[in-house]
Amino acid sequence: LTNPDGSIGETIYGQMTKFAAEVGAVNLGQGAPGTEPPDELIAATEEAMRAGFNQYAPGQGYPQLLEAVGAQRGRDFGQHVDPDEVLYTAGATEGLTAAILALLPPGGSLVAFEPFYDSYPAAIAAAGGTLHTVPILPDGRGDFAPDWETFDRVIAEVDPAIILVNTPHNPTGFIFSAADLARIGRAAEAVDAWVLSDEVYEQLVLTDLGHVPPAVAIEDSARVVTVSSAGKSWNTTGWKIGWVIASPEVRQAIQTVKQFLSFTAGGPMQIGMADMLDGDSQFVAENRASLRARAEVLVPACRSVPGAEVSTPRAGYFTVVDFSALTDRDAFELNELLAREFSLVGIPVPALCRQGSPAYEAYRSSIRYSFCKSVADVDKGAQLFNALG
Ligand code: PMP
Ligand code: GLN
């Protein structure tokens, strides 16, 4: 949960962004890109605004976007998706919340991997359900692994209505393999649970490992609900163009909830983004290469700090640095100290865990740093780490 005392207050991302500005530190916290979307996307969106797409869009989203999302999933992942199975949402955040509100009964259980994106516990609380977690832990070689023994035990114990998987995973960059996902699918089938899949980093795999959507790896794909968004791939986190993919009946149930959250949003951006998802743009490939280059600046700089354990980001925006060999301080104290003395702010990883859980303890002194920031900020951050070293 967001606050160390377990309450839900302002998100850790909002808090850390303010804190960095207050102390004048380099902000490698919030995963908000420091680079811009492509001109062609801005032009297509402007054209949509001038063409009159300025009022309420249809509740399901504009047909152009629903079709484009289906085509993109087919092209990139071999997932067959009909437009009838797609719902526009105001970012992945709204898609996740609407899906949880629609599919988690009051008193029901949801199992998620930990650390987790901070909107999950808030949505589960709003649904009147309970969150149970399975840690994804450092393997000691710069990578991570889910604790499968705990997974099997927790699923058997809590009989969840939903298993939530985030692949590629924030903050570790861990990519679930097809075999991992098939295992999750079998577990879901055994207890008749939905698999809710958060794939916002689907396009940002930085290594040769491919992203496999759970809806492709899991045999009974009708139980999979996919959530993704354009924000991370297209540097448009402020536009909130996201989507849910589910069977028509489940899509309709989620849409029924969604209509009373935002009703609809982002009309002209839906049209602009639909234009980009046709596969002609090179932008996402360039963005991936640029992120890889920024990671290659930041990660070695973090590794220059003797004793710091630095993760190799396989996907996404982040590297996780474990300072526990260097200090007894927890990540909250350490982040504050590094901000005040070295002008550097990240996100304490325990803020993405449940207080006192095995993951919370494992990441007690770990801080997440974002390399999606501007080249100048990533360079500044790297210089500060080199100076620390
Ligand atoms: N899930 C994860 C794992 C995230 O890191 C984020 C942050 N962007 C989201 C969901 C929310 O995505 P959106 O901005 O599209 O709401
Ligand atoms: N998803 C982004 C991150 O993990 C932040 C989103 C937010 O600020 N709510 O940093």
TrEMBL record:
Its cofactor is pyridoxal 5'-phosphate. It comes from the Bacteria. Gene3D superfamilies: Aspartate Aminotransferase, domain 1 (3.90.1150.10), Type I PLP-dependent aspartate aminotransferase-like (Major domain) (3.40.640.10). SUPFAM superfamilies: PLP-dependent transferases. The lineage of its organism: Bacteria, Bacillati, Actinomycetota, Actinomycetes, Micrococcales. It holds the Pfam family Aminotran_1_2. One of its GO terms (molecular function) is transaminase activity. Residues 26-348 form the Aminotransferase class I/classII large domain. This is N-succinyldiaminopimelate aminotransferase DapC. Keywords: Aminotransferase, Pyridoxal phosphate, Transferase. The keyword Transferase applies.
